[in-house]
Design a protein that fits this description.
The protein is of the alpha+beta class. 16% of the residues lie in helices and 31% in strands. Strand 19 and strand 20 form a beta hairpin.
Amino acid sequence: MFNKIGHTKKNLSLIKTYSFSILGKKPGLHVRDDVFYKINNNNKVDWIISRTCDHAGGRLMYNPRLLGDCTAKCPNHGWTLDLKKLKYKNVNVRKKKLKFIQNKNKIIYQDNKHFVDLPKKIKNNNPIVKIRFLAHACMSIDIDGFKIVTDPWLIGPCFNNGWWHLYPPKNDAVNILKEADLIYISHNHPDHLHPETLQYIKNKKIITPNFKSKSSEKMLSAIGCTKIEVLNFQDVFEIKSKNIFFTIFKSGDFRDDSGLYIKSGKFSILLAVDSRSLNGGNLPKNTTVFMSSFAAGATGFPLCFLNYSENEKKKIKKTTKIAKLLEIEMMLKKLNSKFFIPYAGFFSESASRDKYIKKKKF
């Protein structure tokens, strides 16, 4: 059905380099617009790290008066980085060092944030594209008659009866799923990989990312799906004889999550699903359609935690929602997309046990 034709990182992207001078700088920690760096007593730079938070792409702030000399903190969700150990204090995640070279007082470092694109051999045509919302994160994308369906959850609840559809699927949704040529499963959460729904399409071609944990692959196999294609991140594939190309990007944080980029002629669509800082921010530019979740994640935190007051919970929820909106706004500006479609957030906590969450989440 499709063939691998390349890899975005090796074949289709450009890593940019930037430079700055350390002339006159004293040993110790220093802060620039986009990076932190440390100079030792021999006037050598020990390391350089990005100021981008590894959780959701926020900006790590440095304020010694409030945080101390060796701490940076992201205001979006409170991730706190120890600048001595280069490790976050509240989660088990290390900060990666950027590659750099030093020529006397001049420092040249690599900025891994670059735009990627698909092969130039794509025909410059205008395909007929039909996009239809089926439910939650389940979308039907029809490109010149080739049908792709994403993350099908169409039947009943998920998360142990905790989540129900806010907008129930139409009567023909399951038939559309059955008629799909290709199914994309972004990750293994049950609102994206839903066992009851997948019972209807166990013999359909399903693509899912090659996570190190094999999390989605294992679940699909356990359900009994027989045509699973596990694809490496950033490999580029071409649908045979259809002028349709696609690649899967990894969520930029530590979680098993992914996004899908599809291009055909002048049309392109990027589905970020629930990912944070998708592909480390290295994304295609001038996409026709950008799709992203908007609900700022599951609503269990902080509402289910007893060590927060009602006012603290309200403040955290407000901060989280504002951060999500700012993240989407930043992505739209970066991608220069013509259209934005919010999805993967249309659920309701309809179980009687979750009345408090349903009432307080907004």
